[in-house]
């Protein structure tokens, strides 16, 4: 039961009963409720700041576990990318060197997977770990692309391996004329004195001095691409396409034993030495062309010579003398 309150009235000199209006009661009640609510909110905020709820504790734990697994996944992806780089390096510097194949350009091997816009809408909800997820997705996409490129490269290497025996038989590897005593090589590849112009010019093949009618042999398996008779320049010329980027030319001939389109084997007779075209004496001018670039034929005279004979031939070819054309 509520206490009855009195106050002293100085005019009447009596204690009068305090009358409380309904409005005062309502206002007092509202004030008390407001203060209680305010203290409740403050207490809840302080409590939640220092003492997270069971659900929040569970979410924090799950977030930490996800971060841990993402970090492990990143390390695994880094390891896989490093292994892929090792495979690519072996592919370019070992396998492709063995089979004389061009390395795959790095811009193709490392081809990008798109800019950051590709991953802009990857996540619908923000979790605070978007950077980890997007970075992992980028690395995974890079790895997939590089794996695809490496698979294609190995397919190419497998084909080259299957054709290895054919390639070895096709690459020029012997001298085009019989020259066991090494006396027939009269002029090598490089700067030589032109016999007619009397100026120093690049000699793009080697000259073998030999009597007219001396047999000429194909230096590798291939197909006759050209068998042309001319009174100037190379004179009577045969060109053989050996495949794998290699071609050989035989100039100043006096006779053809093959014709355009014939398939021939290494060591097969294709004609005879002559003195046709712009030539000062009977000889064979021989060239090796690899991917449209003329290279020193002496580098290919290995199959029918001992190491000592090959060294001697290289020394003879290096002498800057006069060519025969």
From TrEMBL:
Q: Which InterPro entries match?
A: Cell_wall_metabolism_enzyme, Dup_hybrid_motif, M23ase_b-sheet_dom
Question: Sorted alphabetically, which keywords does the UniProt record give?
Answer: Membrane, Transmembrane, Transmembrane helix
TM spans, by residue? Answer: 25-46
Q: Which PANTHER family match?
A: LIPOPROTEIN NLPD, PEPTIDASE-RELATED
Q: Which residues form the signal peptide?
A: none
Alphabetical list of Gene3D superfamilies matching this protein: Glucose Permease (Domain IIA)
Protein name in the entry: Peptidase M23-like protein
Superkingdom assignment:
Bacteria
Gene Ontology molecular function terms on file: metalloendopeptidase activity
Q: A single Pfam family, by name? A: Peptidase_M23
Sequence ranges assigned to domain M23ase beta-sheet core in this UniProt record: 202-297
